[in-house]
Design a protein that fits this description.
- The chain is about 30% helix and about 20% strand.
- It has about 400 residues and is an alpha/beta fold.
- It has 2 domains: about 240 residues, 3-Layer(aba) Sandwich (Rossmann fold), CATH 3.40.50.12780; about 40 residues.
- Helix 5 packs across helix 6 and helix 7 crosses helix 8.
- The chain starts with a helix and ends in an 18-residue tail after the last strand.
- Bound molecules: zinc ion (ZN).
- The site of zinc ion has 7 residues, from loops.
Length: about 400
């Protein structure tokens, strides 16, 4: 089995010939201390932080930061002068808007990460359908588009406003062989196109991939799909699966993740808790011990691919754990194209025989009110952008 791209990328970026766990952790501590020193001198927010830690374990002595910190103290958290920033405004996944900023270096670094990471599934000559809009060159779609071109493949980024009919028509007329985008949308498109689909491989990101959705996509494609985890606070790129598909290898020379319990205590490998992020590689707005609000765990032991880089598994937002469970049940019915909760009722777009679909869904979701509608040509996805699971 091919080793994760991550090991080679870290070797190249950090000047290692061979990557060992010890060398990687020593480098992480060096980068963490460089970042702390910058932060203490340049960021008003970090004035009282220590300039140096003696071990990676001591990271747990630093206070947590969270969405509120980012909203309330944006200017004090920025370490790069305003003229060097590529700013992005973001609404976050819950609550009032928060901002994140990147420097040119940050964007280049992420572009490189995608360019190398996407070679796991994209080959020269491929035609890629990307469901992330390319609003500018440093948007998620923009970074993926230029990474894909580096590989020698073609890409079409959707605008986010297309109907299902328009999306399948584009995929078919382009002969798109690879999909990059949210998992449920991939399943919607595969079900709508059926055997006509030109899609062969896929990377899913942005939302957690429910296991039913994953299994159905893999069956339709006839191959395993790759999952990626990233958030704006991690510089968009974060962690990605290798050919073993047993967890996502973390971009460990740029990011340190911890898993913490409800009391904020650090949890051992294998235990589920909240993902906490420290961005040792971001230049403009590094964060220390940022509570992501996402639930995850480290996969214990070494990956079958041979990589020494740690692996994450995630299951979505801590606050809405019911969401992906409901998605899991709903998409078991093979007629379902999309679904959402509307005031306690599960609203569904279905393909084919409605009565048959209703019978199946009543068995899958006993006692839940259902509203089914046959999909029409002009229908689009219920969720434009992040799905956030289906709420109760
Ligand atoms: Zn691996």
């Amino acid at each position: 089995m091919k080793i994760s791209f991550q090991d080679g990328l870290i070797c190249r970026q950090e000047g290692f010939h061979v990557l060992t766990r010890q060398a990687l952790e020593e480098r992480q501590l060096e980068l963490l201390n460089m970042q702390l020193r910058r932060a203490v001198h340049k960021g008003a927010f970090y004035r009282d932080y220590p300039e140096r830690l003696d071990s990676l374990e001591q990271l747990s002595q630093l206070p947590f930061t969270d969405e509120r910190t980012l909203r309330d103290s944006f200017a004090e958290l920025c370490l790069s002068p305003g003229r060097e920033l590529v700013r992005l405004r973001t609404s976050g996944t819950t609550g009032t808007p928060k901002r994140m900023a990147y420097s040119k270096y940050d964007c280049e670094r992420t572009r490189m990460y995608f360019a190398v990471g996407l070679t796991e599934l994209i080959y020269p000559g491929d035609r890629v359908l990307c469901a992330f809009p390319q609003t500018d060159e440093n948007s998620l779609g923009g970074l993926i588009a230029s990474a894909v071109k580096t590989i020698g493949a073609d890409i079409r980024c959707l605008s986010g406003g297309e109907s299902f009919g328009e999306m399948t028509a584009l995929a078919e007329s382009d002969g798109s062989s690879v999909y990059v985008g949210p998992p449920v949308l991939l399943l919607s498109l595969l079900r709508l196109m059926g055997k006509k689909t030109p899609l062969r491989r896929a990377l899913v990101s942005s939302d957690v991939c429910p296991s039913t959705v994953r299994a159905a996509c893999e069956e339709a494609l006839g191959t395993r799909i790759f999952t990626h985890y990233g958030l704006r606070e991690s510089g968009l790129g974060g962690a990605m699966e290798c050919q073993a598909h047993e967890g996502m290898h973390v971009r460990e020379n740029d990011l340190i993740f911890e898993i913490v319990g409800e009391e904020g205590e650090r949890l051992p490998d294998g235990a589920w808790g909240e993902l906490v992020l420290t961005s040792i590689g971001l230049e403009a707005l590094p964060l220390f011990r940022y509570r992501t609000g996402d639930r995850g765990r480290f996969v214990p032991g070494r990956c079958p691919c041979g990589s020494v880089v740690r692996r994450l598994e995630t299951t979505g937002r801590l606050k809405t754990p019911a969401g992906s469970r409901l998605d899991d049940a709903v998409f078991r019915c093979t007629s379902v194209i999309d679904a959402r909760m509307e005031e306690g009722t599960v609203s569904l777009l279905v393909l084919g025989d409605e009565r048959q679909a209703r019978r199946e869904l009543e068995a899958l979701l006993p006692g839940r009110p259902l509203r089914l509608r046959a999909i029409e040509r002009g229908d689009g996805p219920f969720f434009r952008g992040k799905r956030n699971g289906l709420r109760r």
